[in-house]
């Protein structure tokens, strides 16, 4: 059984973070932006678990931080989607450019 090196996990996290950053900065659909933010948070979680396992002093603290980050990401997604649904009901669009004011 061969172990996967830490560099493979870090490369995966880098790719996921770059895809998420591109989506968050370049797309105008609010749903795509929320998904991109989730991708970036997942890349951070991969880094936390990787450094928890392969770090100078391997321990479980990175995995515990990753669980907290997953909890915060789930709450962020729920609140973000609730706000998105409320905006869609008022504006009939999910385009970020058209959501520049709070009042219609």
Please characterize this protein's 3D structure.
This protein is mainly α. Helix content is 74%, strand content 0%. The chain contains three helices and no strands. It has helices at residues 6-26, 30-54, 61-91. The longest helix has 31 residues, at 61-91. The protein is elongated and about 55 Å long. The chain starts with 5 loop residues before the first helix and ends in a 13-residue tail after the last helix. The model has no long low-confidence stretch (mean pLDDT 87).
Shape by Cα distribution: elongated
User: What is the helix/strand order?
Assistant: HHH
Structure annotation, total helices: 3
How much is the radius of gyration in Å?
17 Å
Task: Compose a concise summary of this entry.
The chain is mostly helical and 104 residues long.
Task: Write a concise keyword list for the protein shown above.
104 residues; mainly alpha
List the helices and strands and how they pair.
Elements: H1 6-26, H2 30-54, H3 61-91
Helix pairs in contact: 1-2, 2-3
